[in-house]
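FAQ
Q: What does a multi-component entry look like?
A: The components come first, one per line:
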Amino acid sequence: MRIRIAHTTTYRYEAPPKTVTQVLRLTPRNHDGQYVVNWRIDLSRDCQLYQREGAFGNISHSFTAEGPFDELSVSVEGEVDTQDTSGIVRGAVERFPPALYLRDTQLTEADAAIIDFAEATRAKAGADPLTLLHALTADLNETFAFDIEPTHVGTTAAEAFKLKRGVCQDGTHIFIAAARHLGIPARYIGGHYCRTDDDGPQEAGHAWAEAYVDKLGWVGFDPTHGISPTESHVRVAVGLDYLGAAPVRGTRHGGGHETMAVSVHVTPASRQAQSQSQS
Amino acid sequence: MSSAFDEMKGHDGTAVRPAYGELDRWLKEVPPDVLDYRRREAELIFRRIGITFAVYGEADATERLIPFDVIPRIMAAEEWRRLEKGLTQRVNALNLFIKDVYGDREILRAGIVPEDMIFRNPAFRPEMNGQTVPHDIYVQIAGIDIIRVDADTFYVLEDNARTPSGVSYMLENREIMMRLFPELFSRHRIAPVENYPDELLATLRSVAPRSTSREPNVVLLTPGVYNSAYYEHSFLADKLGVELVEGRDLFVKDEIVYMRTTQGPQRVDVIYRRVDDDFIDPLAFRPDSILGVPGLMSAYTAGNVTLANAVGTGIADDKAIYSFMPDIVKFYLGEEPLLKNVPTWRCREPEHLSYVLDHLPELVVKEVHGSGGYGMLIGPSASKIAIEQFRAKLKTAPDNFIAQPTLALSTSPTCVEQGVAPRHVDLRPFVLTGSNGVRIVPGGLTRVALKEGSLVVNSSQGGGTKDTWVLDK
Amino acid sequence: MLSRTADNLYWLSRYVERAEYLARILDATQRLSALPLAYVGTGNEWESAVLTAGCAGSFFKTYETATEENVTDYLAFSTANPSSIRNCFEMARGNARAVRTALTGEMWDAINGTWLELKRFGTGPGSREETSRFLRWVQESSLRFDGSAYRTMLRNDAYWFSRLGVYMERADNTARILDVKYHLLLPDNERVGGPLDYFQWAAILRSVSALTSYHWVYRESLKPWLVADLLILKEEMPRSLASCYEAIVRNLDAIATHYGRQGPSQRQARGVRTRLQNSKMDGIFQRGLHEFIGEFITENNRLGMAITEQFLQ
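Then the predicted structure of the entire assembly, as tokens:
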């Protein structure tokens, strides 16, 4: 499936900042299940973008834009060919052995409630890792409600689990916390999800988890949809948690209050052509 | 504890060791009230000098001064030479180990250090993986804690490879001693320490990025006035003649670090940073940090700035990794370690754990990631209840602990309420590593446990400091 | 030097200068309000004090009318008023602490000593005597700090930035008094107000400690236009706008020479100084005193921003 992705984040400043510095993880890489046909990043201000490979093999760009300006936008546009691999990720850039992904982070620390949840799932599903991970995914999908209201980027797995509501980031953190508690290396994946139906809100980005299963390697699990990733998933960045894979981390010096608007289009490439001709 | 080796009188307490000959004579000559008077005078001066840097006027300010003992701890030239060799070897191994762990991982492949002890360790920084640092030096400034158990045996107690502090006390203690006891000085030939700031600056300059063409611009990065070691930061910046900067004084543009000056942006080449990894760049580590410099890691990984010490050096001074240090020295240098390691049981290993649980009353148990003497159990002096409580803690999370035998730290004559009495001491020499080799100013910071019988020298637990004399013979 | 260091030195001086100015206003107002009504007219002197302190907006959010008690409290002791004398000293000491090593020992002792002593005055004025003792102490503290800076600092950029803070604040303060009291200084006022305003003129001079100087300079009884002349154009009078700008230009020039570069703040400061030098009181009165002062305040603020932009951030 060819997926076209176009998104723009626009920052507006009440008072112009002196400088804005950002680190972007917005560029997907190839693996057996996805091939990046073309990809570009555009900034509304003239400044140099520096590309590097980050800790987990992610491609990152950093820039410093010098003010004053009232508005700054970061646009990404590209096409990716994807293939269904039953969630198994092969041929991706790997910089660490799976053991690294057993580390706890502040966002993914399992509290007593998550430990109970993980243990209960194991008691029910048995010790076979693949079955267990699928059971975790299904359970989370059932008990955890999608709701953009109650959580934010800094919400921990434990906090979200208590609320039983949140966005894909929260579900993914809970999954990771539970898997690591069970001794299974797990990691956070930031990316995009191409909807084939038209109802419901389009999320700015999507997130799911990958867990390491002996003999199979890294396998994706998407608690938000209760499935393993399909050809509708475009994998962009890997991390121990959201912070390591965050699409944008930035700061500014000087200036007043900032507002942010995001527009995202993730569409099958053929349909995109159609909708463009209609507009 | 009575069997402890005394720096002045050895094991049996009869014959005075040669290095202490003059001091012994002097202590016998000087009337006790004079010594006491000098002691109070020292405190006053120390307070006044220290006060120049501490935040006086605030309720807790005076309490922040660490007690100072006027009787020096003395080492013979020969003793120091041996120690110096051992320290150099140790720090060379630390640097090679860190480079390897973030690079080729040969030591893991060789099966010497278990893989998960590195990768699951919070002190391991994935962000440093595959990065090179200028001149392959990671630990430019190390504070190696040394204890002594007899005339010939020194142990390394801890390798401090992150942001070791205390060097200002080493310098201040010497200043005060020279002012208070000029005639005691004239009876000895004591190797100077006052050149430490010069050596430090030379070291920092030598590790500037290779791309730096001008005289490298060095700055000292402090978390700010509210940090407990702030006075040391400002003291050192003054002595080095470099700017004392806070995170907000620096910014990164086009992967280059600049400081904001009244004459516009000025490029920075070397940052002697006293801010922990976690807080150094909110875009790479803790996003809520306001002490760091946004984008610093991108300038760092681009090779445009040197951080001293490097990011991620904590992997080398972790207490669990510590137990592997003799093997680490052998692996990288092909030499036998010159300094001993305190035998250490890793509670993560079942047979070690069961030994530790069986011998709690005679062991010291420490938290792997703790520091400052907190969260530890000193078996011989702990109550039965405390031991049982600790046993429970140990069983729930054995990975978090290591255990060591209770070592009799050497004692050194110390001025206390009742007169002069032996008290346990350790030593923190400061080891500088630059592109042109290792430099160690003779001596270091001697810490002393002022409470009778106490083995805890940490200032947070009632320890004091002494001047450390290395005789120049 | 680091911009933050320069910024701290600059604001350290500004806050100390501001504290002194507030003390002078309170002192002058206290004297004025002690006179029988027949001598000073019916205006509320305490309201006028709040206006000259430049915090009328926030003051009247808390209080309906200005009285001796609430104005003294608000300008001197209040923690709610960011520019109270107490807060000025708090902030000055905070600035000093942040750049401790850029100060001489004497400067640190002066400002830290002031800060420590401040605590002894408690949270509010007790009696009038107590208040006036406090106000005198504030002025002495400021003098002590200013003197220690003048006598002990190296003559380098640190010194020039600290001086710049003093004169920028002083120019602003003098202009603010003129802005509130300008109507008393118009030439025809002598006829209109007559002797009634005599004590007002004296109070104005007292609030810039220039009552004695006036007599030395003019050897005349108080005339409103001469009071205006003294405060605006006389370079020999240390708190006049002209004198402040002579010093501002001198210090900015020292910085420019040292750095080998002129910038917007140097140009702005010279522009203002030239206008002051080329002005005569007649012309100012003709074009309108109030307009002249208003323009000066705008220009002075613009210079403040230029200095910040060019050096301090």
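Q: Is there any commentary attached?
A: Sometimes. For this entry: Chain A has one domain: 2-268.
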